[in-house]
Amino acid sequence: MDYEFIYSFKKPQLTGNWFLDLNPLTKLNIVIVIAIISILSLSWQVSASIIAFYFLLAALAGCLKRFSKMYIKLGLLIGSLLFIMRAMFIPGDHPLFTFWLFTITQEGIDKGIWFSTLVVSICGAIVLFSTITRAKDFMYALENLGAPHSTSYIILASFQSIIDLGDRAKLIMDSQKARGIETEGNLLQRIKAFIPVMGPLVLGAITSTEEKAIAMEARAFSAPEKNTHLSELRKVPLWEKLFVLLVNISLILFIIWRFI
Amino acid sequence: MKGIELKNVSYQYPLSEAFALKNIHYTFEKGKFYGIIGPNSAGKTTLCNLVRGLIPHFYEGELSGDVLIEGKDVREWDGSLLSTKIGYIFQNPFTQISGVKDTVLEEIALGLENLGIDKEEMIERVINVVKLLKIEDLIKKNPNNLSGGQRQRVAFASIIAMDNDILVIDEPTSQLDPESTADIFEIINMLKSQGKTILLVEHKVDLIAEYSDEVLVMENGHIAYSGTPSDVFSNIELIDRGVAIPQAALLSHDLQRQNKPFDFITITNEQAKQQIMKRMSCVNGSY
Amino acid sequence: MGAIELKNVTFAYPNGFIANENLTLSINSGERVAIVGQNGAGKTTAVKLMNGLNKPTKGNVFINGMNTKDKTTAQISSYVGYVFQNPDDQIFNSNVKKEIEYMLRYLKLDEKEIERRVGRAVELTGIQDFLHMNPYDVPYSTRKFISIAAILAIETPYIILDEPTAGQDMSGIKALTTLMNVLQDEGKSVITITHDMEFVSDNFSRVVAMANKQIIADGTARKIFWNHDVVKQAKIKKPQIGELASDLGLSEDIILRKELVDLLINKY
Question: Which of C88, C102, C103 minimises the CB distance to A203?
């Protein structure tokens, strides 16, 4: 038996990466501060620098690959969509060129760049946080703050049930295909093929929710005792507290510098 | 000693006119292994739900008669306390995994976390149950990626770790292959030897005949027959009523019909083997 | 050439995981075949190759001579009916009769034909009493028969049943036996995945044993169950009577109760 693995639960499970090992709430604090700076700066240059900064932070946490994979795709999609919408529709006094019904103005371009970098930078905060924080650690941290045990269970279980639901949808799709329902072809055919999937999927989800409730009850889910935890978070060290303080003070200084 | 007493218990599920259980009168004694068999929809799972306290704490509906768990009426029990008293394992290996833990080790510890067991003891108990069920090779794996048989073993481990006195087990092997089924029966037999009270619903009557102390045959919501496996399975009426009986008993009945009976109705392969060997040695001896 | 023909078929999932390796198997019209083996041995992926849900990564699968690679699953479904292990993955209508009729209406058959086919499927599966109920108000074991009826109504020459005995009681297993006999009399092939060894020895002359993604043996039930290596490798079990005969050191290759009874009557 792998006792080393078992006994690793006796201590907080640290990765050895100082940034990754920060308390989930510390990380949350940091990304929120970054997002606020991006919002208040009203400057695309700041937002763009922040976007670049995320990659640095992700690299620091050793998650650059995972982060980039998700963020670049999402960022390009949202960023370009928002930019095009703004650029096309915002009127201004400095038209650059006209095509079909649209006149593209300098103002539209400027606002488009500003808005899309802003939104992409806010998205980045969320993506970065979810990349560097395990959901269960975050829930545990919230529980420590007094959030009810059942809430964190439901949130965590929802993540898994989305995966399960996807797997089951595929299985049901297969079973409908196997009985002869054509799932490939034009849009109408696809929509028609989709109906048979929804019924079993929803009903299955309901039954499995009931069964899961019974199964969790059997695991003393609603026992009156205050529950304990096998894996725990590190007690926040003094330097980390100071670090959070520093981050928050910089935010305040930034606000003062920017607005007063 | 009395573990669970049922006195004239009847029950209807909400919105259902039919009785799921009718006039059940039975006492489950501590430390015994009860095999519950019978056709589908005869009320086996409902009986489990009742004994487990899910009726009336989870399912509403009409419950009459008395259900006494360790002498105290089930209605007076706190539903959550019952789960610390009575463990429950059922068919579906997929819904019994919490879905919130990344490793089997943490999955097994979940019940103990809920019971507020301190960490040192928790680790101790998880280690013991992992050894007991021989699932050392699973502890680091993600429970959401296991096979049905593996999940079912983890479900057993998770419940056994909570150290309940009574275990209600509803068709644990119906979705498993022969090898995983044998593993599960080995686990159940070990629990029996630890003195646990076990109520097992199972279609595999050959295994029920081999392991249980008492057999209950359910039919249309009531207990049609009960007694030791020999008493119950030697009754040929069962077949006509759509209840499977062990192959060894069928063999016995066949021989009886052809006027070459065994000394008694055998219900396990071991008994049949002894009887046949006896007969073979007689024949061989006469040569 | 067999009606269903797998030729050196390897199947890998898109992520590269190989589920079946070099399967060669030929099943004739009217044949009844049980596929046995441990969970994860590749039984389900193998039957999914037969109805086109899985397309071979290497090798070819032919149904009545046509290559499954050239057809969609829906097209193959009029030749090969496949009843999934879990009926809840299949049933979606709010009424049993509608569920059975669904594909027939989808195929635009006329009313009279629909009525005939539904009547026959219902009779074969014995679900007359449930016809006007919601499938989700009937027990799981009955739902399984509803899902079988819905496939039977399509009247395909080949039918695959995935774990039909799971959760069935004695009467359910008896109904399955009768059903398979009728199908065989009609010249249809039935391919069944099962863990129930008594069911196999009672009902199947041909058994295909799978282990570790491959077919390791293909032969009569007697030959498979009395081949110690195959039983061990496929992690199956002899049926109870076979086990007993083996414990007694009887060399007669017994797998059925009747055989043991006859032996005991005649010899001992």
Answer: C88
Task: Write the residue in A6, A219, A224 that is nearest to B158 by C-beta.
Answer: A219
For residue C195, count CB atoms less than 10 angstroms from its CB and return exposed for 0-12, middle for 13-18, buried for 19 or more: buried
* C90 vs A183, A200, A207: nearest CB: A200
Phi, psi at residue B225, to the nearest 5°? Answer: -140, 150
> How far is Cα C239 from Cα B180, in angstroms, rounded to an integer?
16
Q: How far is CA B130 from CA A20, B138, B228, in A?
A: 31, 9, 33
Nearest chain C Cα distance for residue A109, angstroms: 43
Q: Which CATH code fits C1-73+187-237?
A: 3.40.50.300
Residue B56, preceding peptide bond in cis (omega within 30° of 0) = yes
* Inter-chain CB proximity B115 and A231 less than 8 Å: no
A193 lies within 8 A of chain C by CB: no
**Residue C185 tokens, joined:** 């009399």
* Token couple for B97: 């995994």
CB of B21 closer than 8 Å to CB of B221: yes
pLDDT digits (tens, 9 = 90+) for B14-29: 988 889 999 999 999 9
Nearest in space to C268 (alpha carbons), one of A257, B260, B208, A72: B260
The domain ranges of chain C are 1-73+187-237, 239-268
Q: Identify which of B58, B99, B117 has the shortest CB distance to residue A228.
A: B117
Measured CA angle at B8 (ends B2, B9), to 5 deg: 90
Contact A218 B118 (CB under 8 A): no
CB of C262 closer than 8 Å to CB of C208 = no
The answer, for B285 touching chain C at a CB cutoff of 8 Å, is: no
Average pLDDT over residues B163-180: 91
Enumerate the β-bridge partners of residue C114. Answer: none
Q: Locate the chain A residue with the closest alpha carbon to C136.
A: A203
Task: Judge whether A192 is closer than 8 Å to chain C, CB to CB.
Answer: no
Give the whole-angstrom CA distance, residue A65 versus residue A131: 10
Rounded to two decimals, the ipTM of the complex is 0.87
Query: What superfamily would CATH give domain B2-245?
Result: P-loop containing nucleotide triphosphate hydrolases (3.40.50.300)
Bridge partners, residue B197, by sequence? B166
* Interchain pair B139, A6: CB under 8 A: yes
* Cα distance between residue B161 and residue B107, in whole Å: 11
Mind telling me how many Å the CA of B83 is from chain C's nearest CA? 26
What is the number of alpha carbons within 13 Å of residue C87 lying toward its C-beta?
26
Q: Which chains touch C (3 or more CB pairs under 8 A)?
A: A, B
Domain ranges, ordered by start, for chain A:
15-133+235-259, 148-218
Which tens digit of pLDDT belongs to each residue from A212-232? 989 998 998 888 888 888 988
Question: Rounded CA gap, B127 and B118, in Å?
Answer: 14
Ranges in chain A, pLDDT < 70: none
What b/e readout covers B12-34, taking b as 16+ CB neighbours within 10 angstroms?
bbeeeeebbbbebebebeeebbb
Element (H, E) at B34: strand B33-37
Cβ burial, residue A219 (10 Å; 0-12/13-18/19+): buried
